[in-house]
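Researcher: Here's the sequence for the chain we discussed earlier.
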Amino acid sequence: MNIDDFDSIMKKYTLAKEKIENELKIMMNNFINKYNYNPIEHYKSRIKSKESIVNKLRKKNLDVNVENMINNIRDVVGVRLVCSFLTDIYDIVSLISNIPDINIIERKDYISNPMDNGYTSYHLIVSVPIKYNNIKEYVNVEIQIRTVAQDFWASLNHKIQYKHEENVPDNIKEEMYEYSMIINQLDRKMVNLNKVVNGGK
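Model: Thanks. This is the structure I predict for it:
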């Protein structure tokens, strides 16, 4: 991968990261001012390293070049929003849908349809406008939205995958899937409890 081309495109991804962070902050400040409630416990953002990008292209059996990176890796910029309740997730998706000039190009609801390993979260791929050399462009960003409990499971599962170099024993896979289903039930119970605490709202 040509280092000059790579450095240039990464500047665009850095601008996209800054742009989406700013838009999300504005979105949540408006929400907090209106409802006196912050649905986001915490958030994290990152840009993939060159090594991670190269590895992902090779896993996809693609030549390592900037064009393939742009066209085939849509999570070079990633943002993770962690919420208290399942209902917060869908509220946030709705809010993001209404941010001017931020276009949702893909939705994956792994809460309604968990992955085979039990992974649950809500993923969005959005196109974010940036200005680079006075030219307006759109850059893809992945946004993951999940509950605290889902984030705990995903973090632990990632560590297990890393430790076993992705060849996780079947018995551990089965246990992790079972725990994911328990977490899903817990999240739904917490939504109901929150409704009771808030007088059925």
